[in-house]
Amino acid sequence: FLSHLVVWILFAPRLDLLSVYGLLACLNLWIMFTVDRPMPMFGIMKTHSHILVDNLGKTATRGEAVDIKEFFGAYSMDVVTSTAFSVDIDSLNNPKDPFVTNIKKMLKFDFLNPLFLFTALFPFITPVLDKMDYALFPTSVTDFFYAALKKIKSERVAKDHKKKRVDFLQLMVDSQTAGKTEHGSSTEHTEKGLSDHEILSQSMIFIFAGYETTSSTLSFFFYNLATNPEAMKKLQEEIDQTFADKAPVDYEAVMNMEYLDAALHESLRLFPVAGRLERVCKKTVDINGLLIPKDMVVMIPTYALHRDPDYWSDPESFKPERFTKDNNESIDPYMYMPFGLGPRNCIGMRFAQVTMKLAIVEILQRFDISVCDQTQVPLELGINGFLSPKEPIKLKLKPRKVSLTEDICNNNTS
Q: Is residue 186 part of a domain?
């Protein structure tokens, strides 16, 4: 199973680009992740953002400091599990759910695991390790997800005549069906369809990659707002203008919010979850006298570039105005790459942005965020595969006062 579960499958520096597109297999899947149009899974995201807000509200009313990663981790897990395996869970309140327990086992993955480092440095040995039954993830976990996938897929196929739920899994199943129609068999790898193992691999890496990056980015974002209350107030004003009287959040309006977009970009500049990127040189090249041999791994220090004072004024400060439309053109595009750049940039970028922006709007509609005596300022960062704080980020949430319009309505009905 190791050969199927390549951790960097969608971004693999050693995989030729056509193979990556082949694994994506389905044009609808590619369009869903990359084309700027309403995302069919937005309704699924909203369901889980409402659960997130409800869970935060219970803690806020008690006046307790909130370990925000705990809540954003649950939200992120619920969204990716719902879209990857079509399973709706409230993981914060159902910690013993089999999906929750198995995902948590998978997420304990250690980037410093000798086996992972060995396969990363010498990927050609993965077939040998596969024959020896070595696995990056516990066999019990992969067996659970494979059984769940087979069950869910068979139910989807049996109900093909009924209205389909549009999610990541359904698009991959549709791709497999297209391959079967074209070639007569869905069990062998084709250019059109994904095998069951490939569907499982993509679903698992979708959870693995989406959970940590989304939850950590949201945690850093709200830390930045709590330590910069003037920015939080400005963002809340934009939210209140866009969705008057806590109106329901819709996709188009969220994606057109300029200050929200700028604030998220600025937070990603300060805390890019992928602190570094790697690419493999496809041929020997000379750049200004620096010879880079073929197959050399080139590491791009994202975190350092994002804080380089030669390119960013006052680089340690949180200033969303850097990314407003008036200032965008002054930014060197190769000095800002939280999702990577070029044809191998993060395919899940748009999905992640929608997931995060929805949560941000729903939370700031209802709560003010502030630091407390348990908030570490400034943050100390840990040494992990992804950028993360050394200690949990703890903040205070306070229900917002009602707006003037709501206040008038309440007085008229009393």
A: no
Q: Are 216 and 388 in contact (CB under 8 A)?
A: yes
Q: Quick: pLDDT tens for 376-388.
A: 999 999 877 788 9
In a domain, 247, yes or no: yes
Residues 6+ apart with CB under 8 A from 404: none
How many distinct structural domains can be found in the chain? 1
User: Is 90 exceeded by the pLDDT of residue 124?
Assistant: no
Instruction: Give the pLDDT mean for 300-304.
Output: 93
CB of 306 closer than 8 Å to CB of 299 = no
Whose tokens are 């990127």? That residue is 277
In this prediction, what percent of the chain has a pLDDT beyond 90?
Answer: 41
22-40 residue pLDDT tens: 444 444 555 555 555 556 7
Give the highest mean pLDDT range of 16-20, 135-139, 251-255: 251-255
Q: Domain limits at 39?
A: 3-177+193-273+350-399
- Cα 318 to Cα 263: distance, rounded to the nearest angstrom: 8
| Residue 78, amino acid | D
Annotated binding site: 346
Q: What are phi and psi of 401, to 5 degrees?
A: -65, 150
Numbered residues of the known binding site for heme: 346
Domain with residue 89: its CATH number is 1.10.630.10
The answer to whether residue 316 is domain-embedded is no
Q: pLDDT grade, residue 276 (50/70/90)?
A: confident
In a domain, 299, yes or no: no
Q: How confident is the model at residue 153 (pLDDT cuts 50, 70, 90)?
A: confident
